[in-house]
Design brief:
This protein has 69 residues and is mostly helical. 61% of the residues lie in helices and 0% in strands. The radius of gyration is 16 Å and the shape is flat.
Length: 69
């Protein structure tokens, strides 16, 4: 994989820090719901071995309890 250009780095850095504060509540809720569902699907896979799912379980609980306002 080639190194990213300065412009690509700037776009990527902005994307990972996007707080969605200016988005509609429904869009924020949809995003959290989709990400939570993805975590649930990944956690349900049976081949994780001894990997700790503590952080994943916490993230799922937080996502399921999230209500955008």
């Amino acid at each position: 994989m080639a190194d990213r250009t300065d412009a690509e780095l700037a776009v990527d850095f902005t994307a990972i820090g996007n707080s969605m504060a200016d988005d509609l509540a429904a869009d924020r809720q949809d995003c959290v719901d989709r990400n939570t569902q993805h975590l649930e699907l990944m956690k349900a896979k049976s081949d994780w071995g001894s990997e700790s799912m503590t952080a994943t379980t916490s993230a799922i609980s937080a996502g399921n309890g999230y209500t955008a306002s």
